[in-house]
Amino acid sequence: MQARRLAKRPSVGSRRLGSCGPPKAESGWRPARREGSAAAVEEEDEDEDAAVVEVDEEEEDEEGGGGGAASGSPPLRGKGPKAANIKREMTFPAFQQEDVKSDISQKLPDQQFLLFTTKEEDLKTAETKKLSRVHEYEKENTRSVCLLEQKRKVVSSNIDVPPARKSSEELDMDKVTAAMVLTSLSTSPLVRSPPVRPNESLNGSWKEGGFVPSSTSSSGYWSWNAPSDQSNPSTPSPPLSADSFKAFRTPSQPDDGIDEAETSNLLFDEPIPRKRKNSMKVMFKCLWKNCGKVLSTAAGIQKHIRTVHLGRVGESDYSDGEEDFYYTEIRLNTDSVADGLSSLSPVSPSLASPPSFPTQDAIRPETSCAKTETKLMTPLSRSAPTNLYLVHTDHAYQATPPVNIPGSTKFTPNGSSFSISWQSPPVTFTGIPVSPTHNRPAGSGEQKQAHTVLSSPPRVAFGLRKPRGEGKKCRKVYGMENRDMWCTACRWKKACQRFID
DNA sequence: TGTGCCGGGTG
DNA sequence: CACCCGGCACA
Description:
single chain, alpha+beta, 2 domains, 4-stranded antiparallel β-sheet, 9 strands, 7% strand, zinc
């Protein structure tokens, strides 16, 4: 016996080392580096983004543009105005990508015009019209940008958080946005009124591409509906115009407080019936420990994180996306609580989009972080003061704030690893490095997986032993001297089967 | 420190 | 599978 024990001990020791039982052993876990299989995830992320944009449009329709820029930005939320993101913001929804290639080339207004104009002077007229239209919209776009700014100031002053100054990146994004709008205007089949209406056969092909004449087409407006979405058949939103404008909007302008309808009006001089104004203000909160700084723009918060927390003073333009992990987007309801609650309902853009996340929780739990978190009301949202916070974490690794909240996922400041901690000190987490969202080198799937773990109590997550039974046990009842009267389980030092709790 | 019992070894 | 025990967590 003694000899056996002596022989066993070493093996026991090594065994324990390898086992992943109690948290104690886990403290030795080494986190996976964030830099992971970037390529694979990027592709996946692209899909997701496209889907998000798609859904966002649906939601936009539903809210009647009340969300304005606020609801327009979610798909791009959390993506700083980095050069890499510019590319992303130019990414069309999946169906658009298809259509843009095929349909636009066939159905652009000028080409439509060509279809129906044979004389040379008509061609010239078309060219002139086109140019004048471009100039016109250039003016109007400038005007709308000014108004956006104005509106932003008003909204920002309504809440106590001072708006971050528009960074140069944002301005660049404005330019990009304007350019995109102009481009789309010059190529869009119809913005105000089509020079010539397509004939029936053309209509057919438009339908195929998802463009269907709306019920208001008699007034010269066409609506554009995704084939799968027939819920809003008459929403006037020409391809690559209003929606595109929204889609191209930079996340650094999360909420300008401008109605979508207003934007459309500005851009298209269209008397769109006003709908309820969206009262959600999207802010970006720094999740760095003991910081909690809130800025109104992603760029601002990224800059803040880069400079203040990451100490990257000289590389303000450079971003590896790491700072994305350290802030979260919060939706600040400036309306009544009731409205806030309704906004928390599953209609939320990121929540009510099964198509966007076809492989949500059950199938791919690691991709559902943000959503799960929102559903579960994170500590941050719970600790929100008077205003209602709706926390969105689209950023990889970012589930809950790294502030002193037990049970939060956090990322170590060195960025080389992330960790889950149920207490303040982080417990490193081993995970499979998965999808870097966007263009960042790190993975988003990781975060979501981590969050899945967080969604359940730590005991369950770590599979700790069940609560000790408090009833009588054989040992107590019979005593050591009557060990032969014990149940076998007790004799074997297993859970008592005679006095089961 | 005593107790309950998990995890794993041995035969 | 029965049996045993190291060792951990908890009271």
